[in-house]
Each structure stands twice: as structure tokens, then as C-alpha cells.
Amino acid sequence: MDERLSIASKNILITGGLGFIGSALARRLVELGANVTLVDSLIPEYGGNLLNIAGIEDRVRVNISDVRDAHSMKYLMQGQDYLFNLAGQTSHMDSMAAPETDLEINCRAQLSILEACRQYNPAIKVVFASTRQLYGKPDYLPVDEKHLLRPVDVNGINKMAGEWYHILYNNVYGIRACALRLTNTYGPRMRVKDARQTFLGVWIRLLVEGKPFEVWGGKQLRDFTYVDDAVEAFLLAAVSESSNGQVYNLGGDCVISLKELAELLVEIHGDGAYSSREFPPDRKRIDIGDYYADDTSIRKTLGWAPAIPLTEGLSRTLAFYREHLPGYL
Ligand SMILES: NC(=O)c1ccc[n+]([C@@H]2O[C@H](COP(=O)([O-])OP(=O)(O)OC[C@H]3O[C@@H](n4cnc5c(N)ncnc54)[C@H](O)[C@@H]3O)[C@@H](O)[C@H]2O)c1
User: Fold this and answer.
1) Coil, strand, or helix at residue 195?
2) Which of 37, 86, 112, 203 to mutate to test the pocket of ligand 1 (most atoms within 8 A of CB)?
3) Which residue of 129, 208, 275, 327 has the smallest Cβ count within 10 Å?
């Protein structure tokens, strides 16, 4: 039997559930029959959007609260079988401009979430959305989980602490937890109004609007995970006992330079143009250069593999925004 189906009758809490990846996870869980609660602060600058749950809004419970509110967390954790912990401040530049806000959300709140689990629901299983940003500028490629952690920005440091609190609570208190270090994740409902999530969203918006977009540098190598593939990884990590205490990289189906990616996007869209320019100095300081993941560990231990090729994923994403762009600006 597909182990993921065991989630069908379970109580699930998703922090950041109105965001891009959290809402995709909610869609899949509703489809599987789970009893899903979404927590999201809907802070306007961040990624939450009620449109992300269009079509499933009657099948999920939505709780608008902030993960920094320890009282809400204490209440919400109770009675849950699984916590998918995705709420986060995602912008690297914002983490430099407002480091303490990033600290409160990505680090301190993670500790109070885990404390709520320890005190009120120690049987819960937690899957944390971590990031490749923890590695900083890679010493070697592809980057495996043994690579030194050397973040290049405040966000990377706080996400690292958040991730390690989860592993610590697993190891010391037996609160079953694991973390997925996501690479660039893309797909329908990704953030396109600005580059707080990824540059790719802005490229897609400008293409759909018929405007040229900019490629900074262009030679950097990256990998991309289609959102449904990321969702499958969250489910596999949740239902597996061998994931407890583990961190896993997620990669994509291929490695591509930003210039090649720009060309592929224009080709798939059938129209459009881009220009190349040097990296702006403030971005360059926190840029990680080339990155792509070695995700052998999750492939071997949990049987995960990306199912959606980049071309297919980009074409689904462009199709979504040709129809829905106004709701995402
Ligand atoms: N998208 C990617 O490429 C990527 C890459 C690496 C890691 N991640 C991680 O995955 C997670 C989800 O990312 P996403 O791409 O869906 O981003 P997103 O911005 O769409 O989702 C994050 C959600 O968290 C919510 N949130 C932010 N602060 C909150 C708070 N204080 N209380 C409650 N809710 C709050 C936001 O409103 C948003 O809905 C994040 O933790 C992010 O760090 C994403």
C-alpha cells in the first residue's frame, strides 16, 4: 500500500498554509482526505494569499495567526498528527534590512512551536521546510548534506537555527522531526509580484505581461524543484519513520544556467525578450554563485524522485499565470 494514503484520516496542521508551497501541500492532503488546518499570518509583504486555496476553501480550516504568538501555537498544536512547518520570512534582502524580524519568525518562533509540541503534543510528527541557503557559497558541487553550513545572510543563519531546533527536539525529546532543504521551488501560485521568493517569479510575470526581463550574471548554475514534487517529498518524509532526525536535500531533474533558463522560458512562452546585466553590488554580496543539490539521500531512503521535468513545470506555471496573473500582483 502507498504509505502516503495512511495520512487520509489524520489531523494535519500546516504553518504558512496560505503560501505557495503550503497551499499546494494542502491541496494534495485534501485530495487524500486528510483533516487540514492552515495557519498563516497573511502579513501583506509576505507570501500568503487566500486565492491560493481557491477551490478547496470549504475543505480546510483557516486560522489567521502568527507563529510568533506562542499562545496560538500552544492551542493549534493540540490534537494534530502531523505538522508541516512552512511559515517563514523568505526574503534574503529583507533579512539583511530587518534582521530581527527574520530572527523572530525563522528562529525564535520555531522554538516556541517545538516547545508547544513538547508540552502539549509530543506524539506529533514534524516536517520542517529548510533551505539550501544554509550552505552558503558551495565548496563543491553537487552539494550533499555533509557540506559545511556557512550561510551568507541573516536568513540562512536563522533558518539553520530553526532547522537544528527541530533535529535537537527529535534527538533529545523524541518529538519526531525532520527537515527538507529545498532548492528553488517553482510552479503555479509561486510569488510573482516581487523577487522575495525567487527571481524566476518576476521573470514569469514580466513575460506574461509582454515586458522584457533582466538576467543578472547568467552563468550561475541552479536546480529547480516543481512544487508538486516538493509536496511529495513532504508527504514521504512525514509518513516515514526512517526520516526522524534527518535532513534531506531536494534537487531537480536537471542543472541549468540562468541564461539557459531564460532562453527556455522565452521558447516555452513562444514570445518575449530578456537583457543581461551585471549583478547589483548589494545582491552580489549575498549571492551564492553556482548551486545544485546532491539529493541521493532522499532518493535512496524515501524513494523520492522529481517526476515533472523542468520544461513541463515551466509550461504549467506560465499557463497558470496567463489565466490568473491579476490576483497575484
Ligand atoms: N520557494 C522556495 O524556493 C523555497 C526555497 C527554500 C526554502 N523555502 C522554504 O519553504 C517555506 C515555504 O516557502 P514558500 O515558497 O511557500 O513561501 P511563501 O512566502 O509563499 O510561504 C510562506 C508563508 O508563511 C507565512 N508566514 C510568514 N511569516 C509568518 C508568521 N510570522 N506567522 C504565520 N505565517 C507566516 C506567509 O504569509 C506565507 O504564506 C518557507 O519556510 C521557505 O523558507 C522555500
Assistant:
1) coil
2) 86
3) 275
